[in-house]
Design a protein that fits this description.
Distance between the termini: 42 Å
Bound molecules: glycine
CATH topology of the largest domain: Dehydroquinate synthase-like, alpha domain
CATH class of the largest domain: Mainly Alpha
Helix content: 40-55%
CATH superfamily of the largest domain: Dehydroquinate synthase-like - alpha domain
CATH architecture of the largest domain: Up-down Bundle
Number of helices: 14
Radius of gyration: 20 Å
Structural class: alpha/beta
Order of helices and strands: EEHEHHEHEHEHEEEHHHHHHHEEH
Strand content: 15-25%
Strand order of the largest sheet: 4-3-5-6
Number of domains: 2
Length: 359
């Protein structure tokens, strides 16, 4: 079994004999156990989880509605109320079984209920395995503004089991894969290249690359848990990506984008901006753009859309003194945080994206 040991937030990979959960339950001795699911994970993942863990008769299941639009304080209120009505106390445990919405929201609910109860993340989507579950970021959206309310607090443990990936549609896999591609860009050209072999059809390759992404993310968040420096690199593509995601969520004339689909666009734009400001290689920019556009839907942005997206940047969590700060790349694995980018260059980046033609 692969694992990363830590006092809090240890990560266990394909721990098929269930020993990691057993050990954690023996340590915590929870007064009661709750399992947070959405309707998808209730159907596709909970039966397998209950079978393997023997928690069937020992846990209360709480179900929320799936989807980013329910990642809000109203849903938290529902979960807090259920915990309260069912007699949860400070020694209760919440197990978050789901994708990024369940783990982000569940972590926030647990971190605030009675000033904090223990929680465990069992990510079931690729996005949650390689990103949301690792590093202790928990929270909810404020309206359509992403992750504006939250807290950094690690789960007791994270149990990653890649067999859950088989229950996911292709667009969800691609959404998570965007974060892995980000890990390639911010870590090394070698890993970026290795990622081009990713295929769920090959279990050995899937496991190797998912684990490698977890290691990359873990190394960064261990160095800088509160995002003062190195962790900012994990926001590569997220400044514009989050604004695009929020804009498409709130605008009925736009197709809603999955997180990774929006971040993929954000990474193309950030790489173009990097090529202009930090001289990121233009040939690499073109190859990277090919790879993203082959996998992710191309969105048609009008000038009005771009103006509105730029307006949304003022809510980005990395801003300081009202100035938007971008993470840019000089090369693979060489990021520069806190770059200031003028709006004309953002428009040029969108022009590059719009005019790019696939080979
Ligand atoms: N998802 C970016 C981070 O955890 O820092």
């Amino acid at each position: 079994m692969l694992q990363i040991e830590k006092d809090k937030g240890a990560i266990y990979f394909n721990n098929d004999d269930g020993s990691a959960l057993k050990k954690t339950l023996e340590k915590l001795v929870p007064s009661s156990i709750f399992i947070l699911v959405d309707s998808h994970t209730n159907t596709h993942c909970l039966p397998q989880f209950l079978d393997k863990t023997g928690l069937k008769d020992n846990a209360t299941v709480i179900q929320i509605t799936p989807g980013e639009e329910y990642k809000n304080i109203t849903t938290c209120l529902e979960v807090w109320n259920i915990l309260s009505q069912k007699g949860a106390d400070r020694s209760s445990l919440l197990i978050n079984l789901g994708g990024g919405v369940v783990t982000d929201l569940g972590g926030f609910v647990a971190s605030t209920f009675m000033r904090g109860i223990a929680f465990i993340n069992v990510p079931t989507s690729l996005l949650a395995m390689v990103d949301a579950s690792v590093g202790g970021k928990n929270g909810v959206d404020l309206g359509t503004l992403k992750n504006q309310i939250g807290i950094i607090n690690n789960p007791e443990i994270v149990l990653v089991n890649t067999s859950f990936l088989n229950s996911l549609p292709d667009n969800e896999i691609n959404s998570g894969f965007a974060e892995m591609l980000k890990h390639g860009l911010i870590s090394s050209k070698k890993y970026w290249k290795d990622l081009q072999d990713f295929s769920l059809k090959n279990k050995e390759i899937t496991n190797r690359l998912v684990w490698q992404s977890i290691l990359i993310k873990n190394e960064i968040v261990t160095k800088d848990p509160f995002e003062k420096k190195e962790r900012k690199a994990l926001n590569y593509g997220h400044t514009l990506g989050h604004a695009i995601e929020s804009y498409c969520l709130s605008n009925p004339s736009k197709e809603k984008l999955l997180h990774g689909e929006a971040i993929a666009i954000g990474m193309i734009l950030a790489t173009y901006i990097s090529s202009e400001i930090l001289k990121f290689d233009k040939t690499e920019l073109s190859q990277i753009t090919q790879i993203f556009l082959k996998r992710y839907p191309k969105v048609n942005f009008t000038n009005n859309d771009i103006e509105a997206i730029i307006q949304l940047l003022k809510h980005d969590k990395k801003n300081r003194n009202g100035q938007v700060r971008f993470v840019l790349l000089r090369d693979y694995g060489e990021s520069q945080n806190d770059s200031i980018v003028d709006n004309a260059l953002i428009f040029s980046a969108f022009e590059f994206y719009k005019n790019f033609t696939l080979n």
